[in-house]
Design brief:
The complex is a heterodimer of chains A (190) and B (255).
Chain A lengths: L1 H12 L3 H23 L2 H18 L10 H18 L1 H7 L6 H9 L8 H9 L2 H12 L4 H8 L3 H33 L1
Helix pairs in contact in A: 1-2, 2-3, 2-4, 3-4, 8-10, 9-10
Chain B lengths: L2 H6 L2 H6 L5 H13 L2 H19 L6 H16 L2 H70 L4 E7 L7 E7 L4 E5 L10 E9 L2 E7 L8 E3 L7 E8 L11 E6 L1
Antiparallel strand pairs in B: 1-2, 1-8, 2-3, 3-6, 4-5, 4-7, 7-8
Classes of the chains: A mainly alpha (190), B alpha+beta (255).
């Protein structure tokens, strides 16, 4: 895994077209899933994904591996591009007339990805308490600052911070717990 | 800030999610160095988000990939930087060629002028030499003219003893300046291997006063002998003789 990452990073930095194609194949579904969660429309999500990958290609040489994994870096580019899109005038015009309440919005956000619904994901959603989910969703997928979440939900800033912290810890714990059975399963198969 | 104070800012989570500004990044990174155990927390949050994203993956339509690939091909093959570089290259090549062309032309013109200059110099030297020759000849002619016109110069006609009408040479004799010249006049050229020699008669003894060449136009200087009574020309073998061959006497004249 480490060696493969190094090869991908090296290729991206050297603008290797073949390596870039592999990076796209490997990561575009996960990135598209996140973009779609933020912009909610497939046509817009496709545009954002395309723009983001062109940016990834152009900025490849300045990516610093010591500051975070390749995937985190790409995820940030895609997330920021998607958030920017939701704030553009064009996007707001599209959204107008179908404004939705935060509650429904949250629900949609976490239960999107209609046909590719993952059992693991469902488990996460079910296991993660609503109040934590909501904070993570607003901050990560809606681009809210902690201050804005505090104003939007009418809960104290300290609570926003602790809910984000606890929510992320829950998420971490979940993947830690579930990584073990996957490994056992793989060993069993082999 | 101590560890708890820092954790209460919520910046660590924001940082892990990639939602911090440059300034906030620096602050977080300072604390990550101070409390290395926090780095593990950052890594785990990121892993959780990655895992979440991977499990939430939805394959995009294949047309997106072909658009991305054609976009990056277009950006790397015909970027504005390339065009600019091409322009610079074009002007650089153009001006270089122009300079080289100008240089070659100048060198050609210079070498041509140089050749012309050398030729003119050579011609000038030749003319100068010719001029000097003419000048010295003119001076010599002038001197000769003065010599001939000098009232002390005696004109001596050397005529054939047998047939005066056919052959005549003329000598100019000046006892004042003690110089003498002879012109061969209409004497025929001597047979091959022979040449004319001129003798002065002093007390009935023939003394050679010069070997003559066949230049009929020239005034040939001969030795002046004050006591000479007559001048006589004989045909002698080339290089002259010590004694005149009397039977070969061609012309003579009294002084």
């Amino acid at each position: 895994m480490e060696i493969q990452q190094a090869v991908l990073v090296e290729g991206l930095k050297n603008r290797d077209r073949h390596v870039f194609s592999s990076i796209y194949d490997q990561y575009s579904p996960a990135l598209y899933g996140i973009i779609l969660k933020i912009v909610k429309r497939e046509d817009i999500a496709e545009d954002v994904l395309q723009e983001s990958f062109v940016k990834i290609w152009k900025n490849g040489p300045v990516y610093e591996p010591e500051k975070g994994t390749l995937f985190t870096w790409m995820l940030n580019i895609c997330r920021n591009a998607a958030i920017d899109k939701t704030r553009s005038a064009h996007f707001r015009r599209l959204e107008r007339g179908q404004m939705i309440s935060p509650e429904i919005s949250n629900h949609i956000n976490w239960s999107h990805s209609p046909k590719t619904e993952h059992i693991g994901l469902k488990t996460v959603i079910n296991e993660l308490d609503d109040k934590y989910r909501q904070v993570i969703d607003l901050i990560y997928f809606q681009g809210f600052t902690q201050q804005e979440v505090h104003e939007y939900l009418g809960i104290p800033l300290g609570t926003v911070k602790s809910r984000l912290r606890i929510g992320l810890r829950e998420l971490r714990t979940f993947f830690h717990v579930h990584r073990v059975p996957i490994i056992i399963l793989m060993i069993t198969i082999l | 800030m101590n560890k708890d104070q820092f954790l209460n800012t919520g910046l660590l989570e924001q940082y892990a999610l990639g939602l911090t500004s440059e300034e906030e990044n620096q602050l977080v990174e300072q604390h990550l160095q101070a409390y290395p155990e926090l780095q593990k927390e950052v890594d785990e949050i990121r892993q959780a988000i990655e895992q979440y994203a991977l499990q939430n993956a939805i394959p995009p339509h294949p047309r997106v990939k072909s658009q991305v690939m054609s976009d990056i091909d277009a950006s790397s093959s015909s970027g504005p930087v390339n065009k600019k570089t091409g322009g610079i290259n074009f002007w650089l090549t153009f001006t270089t060629l122009l300079s080289i062309g100008a240089l070659i032309t100048l060198m050609f013109l210079f070498s041509k002028k140089q050749t012309q200059h050398q030729q003119l110099k050579r011609e000038f030297a030749e003319l100068q030499m010719a001029c000097n020759d003419k000048n010295s000849k003119a001076v010599a002619d002038q001197e000769m003219l003065f010599f001939i016109k000098d009232r002390n110069t005696q004109k001596i006609s050397l005529a054939a003893i047998s047939d005066a009408a056919i052959s005549e040479a003329i000598a100019f004799w000046n006892p004042e300046v003690k110089k003498a010249f002879i012109n061969l006049g209409n004497l025929p050229d001597p047979p091959s291997g022979k040449q004319y020699q001129i003798w002065a008669d002093v007390d009935h003894v023939m003394i050679s006063v010069g070997l003559l060449n066949n230049n009929h136009a020239a005034m040939q200087e001969i030795d002046f002998l004050a006591d000479a009574e007559s001048l006589n020309i004989t045909i002698e073998p080339k290089g002259g003789s010590l004694e005149p061959s009397v039977e070969q006497l061609i012309v003579s004249g009294k002084i």
